[in-house]
What does this fold into?
Amino acid sequence: MALAVTAYGNKVLRKVCDDITAEYDGLQVLIDNMWETMYEASGVGLAAPQVNKTIRLFVVDTAQVYEGMNEEDREDLFEEEEGVKEVFINAQITGESEEFWAEQEGCLSLPDINGEVERPWSIEIEYYDRDFKKQVKTFSGYNARVIQHEYDHTEGVLYIDHVSGISKRLMKNKLAKIAEGKVAPKYRMRFAK
Ligand SMILES: [Zn+2]
It folds into this structure.
């Protein structure tokens, strides 16, 4: 079942989320619902606060992007990697590259706006998958960008916190509209007002 996406302005998007255990009530159903919500909204990632839950859980599917890309873009954005489809539980980023890169980002909680964000090119991350199996992996390029964006959500951070002051000022009116519920994306949203 697709869930409503929490819009910018809801306090839940600013909460530092809590770790969960494998016994978390309804976890598998929640994960399935998050996938459905993400695909219905044409997203590449979705974090639990975006469906109104303050837990350290997010899903990422960059495989769909990779599939639709030509060879040249794949080399630029994925280098040696392929797209990933993965559930991240209780994730902790444990390492970052010194190399950074800037790229436009958007967010399902902030419809109709984009902003340029600088992020480390690669990260090391520890997490549990949906079977609660511990994973330690390194991701780079586009994969690392999407994972960092979703990871930020579990820390109460939004990508707009990383954009430059001037871009943020340009976004101000649009952000106010979202917070007031004056946007109409194609997917269902939960507005603060
Ligand atoms: Zn987001």
In short: The CA atoms of residues 68 and 113 lie 23 Å apart.
